[in-house]
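Quick start: what a row looks like.
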Amino acid sequence: MTQSPTPSTSKLHDDKSIALQIHDINCQVAQFRDLLINIGQPRDGPELRERVRKLRRNCVESCKSTSQLVLPQMRSAIDLGIPADSPNLVLLFFVAQLFLRELFKCKNLVRIVPMDMSASKSGPSNIGNVISSILLCKQITPNFNEEELCSIRKDSAEISALVAELQEFMPQSEADVGKTIALQDCCAGLARNNGARKGNRWDNRAGNPNYFGGSFNFLCCASRPNYV
């Protein structure tokens, strides 16, 4: 007779499944970055731009779907009074940040190096243009570059909001361990939830913290590129 899995076994299976999804997102971001390098190069063309667009959309949807698996676990743990500690959340946070950086580069590249997609069979979706032309009785020519820029801005806003939401549950910096200010933050934090990070040193640091050192060197696209 087959025994039902215990809660701990089920959670371990879920964590492994989420970790595999994050690994897949990391690979997609690395591939997305490699495709961006070819924009403006001899290999650039309508086919490459369409691959960039499809991969970008896949990355966005993968980040959003994976976050829906990670964030509920963190909120549930906080509601139960359990200290929030999720390696998957930390990894997803860093991968999403890397992807957000690539989205910024993608927007600049599409703006600086526009592409004529009129000869492409898989150009921009012109359903909206068809409806507008019917209502306005005027022929509207689809503009792939403008549609792509609008889509990238929308994706960037969604990923930026996701990063901000994940950051609420991020652990404090290890640089604060053993310092008096860290003890003060811990005492002050007893009156607030584990996920509320407003007012501590994590948010009040000057400039952006360095997320790419130490144990996160395994991320395949953490190195700084030499383009854009």
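That is the whole record. The chain is about 60% helix and 0% strand. Confidence is low (pLDDT under 50) at residues 123-130, 176-184, 190-215.
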